[in-house]
Amino acid sequence: MEYTGYESFYEGGVSSLKPDFGDYFSGYRMNASQLGFPGSAQTANQLGETINAIRQGVKAFEVTLADIQDVSQTIPKQHFKEMRALMKLTGVKPSVHGPIVDAAGFTERGWGGEITREDNERRMFDAIEKAQEIDSSGKIPIVFHTSNGIPEAEYVPGKEGVETNKIFAINQETNQLAPIEKEYKYYPRKPESLKGKGELFDVKKQLESINNTEWENKLTDLATFNKHADEVIGAAPVILKEYENAVIDKKTKKFYDFDFKEGKEKKELPSIFNMGSEEEKTYGKKEAYKKMMDADIFLENVRLNFNNAFHKAYKYGSPEQKEELKELSEKYSEKIKGLEGSKIPVFAPLIKRQIFDEAITRLQNITARGSPKVFEEVEEFAMDKAVDTFGNLAINSYDKFQDKAPIIVVENPPHGMAFSRAEDLKKIIEYSREKFKNYLIENKGIKKKEAEKLAEEKIGATWDVGHLNMMKKKGFTDKDIIEETRKIRPYVRHIHLTDNFGFSDSHLPPGMGNVPIKAILEELEKSGRFKEMRKIVEAPNFVQHFKKSPHPWTLSAFGSPIYGMKVGPYWNQVQDVVGSYFGGYGTINPQQHHSLYGAGFTALPAELGGAMPGSQGQSRFGGTPMA
Q1: Same domain, 466 and 360
Q2: How many domains does the chain have?
Q3: pTM for the complete prediction?
Q4: Under 8 Å CB-to-CB from 405, ≥6 apart: which residues?
């Protein structure tokens, strides 16, 4: 015997005295009016998906603009107005899932730079404008992921809390990522470490070590070039002693004794270039001057490398270091300018070497307290970029739609992607609110309290319980999951409900995996805004593999009352009756019967709750096509 379904397996007698009956029941009861589901990300026919949801009786629907293969860009603009009319007519509360792009601008090849971040920001704002077409009340949530493709640090439960085994660092010069793992190392200066695993270098120490090594190599190269220049110069300054205060005119090639304090020529000196062979053999001045010029080639390399080192030190240094580097820059600039112009000191290479020597030493001293952070933990780097994007989206939305702008609800991605933890999501929301608030105060003249309130209203969190549950693959427990929910609770404005077993984002209907849904929702209830949150059940994999709508199982999972009042019977009690309550005994109200004899509402189009089919979505009210 071949089974094609499992929903009819007998679970024992049904009793109205057992309201918690049913294998799918999560233990948390919710009215059907609070539950909805999204449109398929695989189709541009979100209008058809909306009609399908309305037919199933949902009162919340999420229009999906996830942009898988740019599908959302194929939705005609007229469809957004049509969806708006349909949902308003049927009392369905809409939300929108925006494109799944990286807010910080990362791609599979690393950080794509500001250009990529700005491109993604524009794409996200396009979704906001479309959300406004669906609902212009200022209450429609639009969901964006915190990240898409940025790897997360590897966190595991430890004896003293959460431990970090691995992080990813970004080389800010190349925008490439590199994994950094904790490591035990052996050192000759610490013989005690040789008895065990060695001295532990955690990921923070490893990152610091990489930056120190990178910077030390840079300074070593500088010192090496400077040393080579010194070796090439050799005894030339002794041989050219009488030209110590001399300059050479770059145009005429004449040499002059020069008063550097007064800035005046004193007298012309014999040209080194015009010395006879016997005189040159005796004094070697021409060869000495040539050595000076050869050294100048090395010093040009020193200059280029010093400029590059200074750039890195300033760009990636601390605020305190930047202040000291400004002082260094002023002194260096003043000294180096004395070697520019039409008349150049004969001893210019020697003077340059001394200037570089002083500047390099000063640079070493400034950076001794901390090497420039060329390599930075990718999540710290990406957070600043993501905050720019979400803050800008809120600002641009407010500029265009004022207080009727959609609500930006930032979603935690699956565990393993950056910013999946509550603490990181919380920071992104707080920093984005701060950016938006400051803009309102400084550019719109809004008072601080009002600006803070507006920022809290327009930027919040989407809490995806399935993504959260994937913590379990690293050894975390239900207790850890509830603690994460407690941290993010005050920020949550929207919920994605789904189920899995902790190892993959399976997208099963609630009640079919091991997500502690009851405990999570009970924790979110404490926010005091639970009823305002829209609960969207994401179960596309169930639809794909079993070719069934997950909505009946959703109603069973939350024990929704069959009737409007909050009393039994509940959907979880009737799910398994006679092959499921939804199966029935065939067509109860045959279309042909009512076409002939009429019967009230059943003669209405299916889109309005009747039994008469429309014409494949050509019109929300039409039966027979006009042509």
Answers
A1: no
A2: 3
A3: 0.82
A4: 128, 132, 138, 394, 397, 398, 458
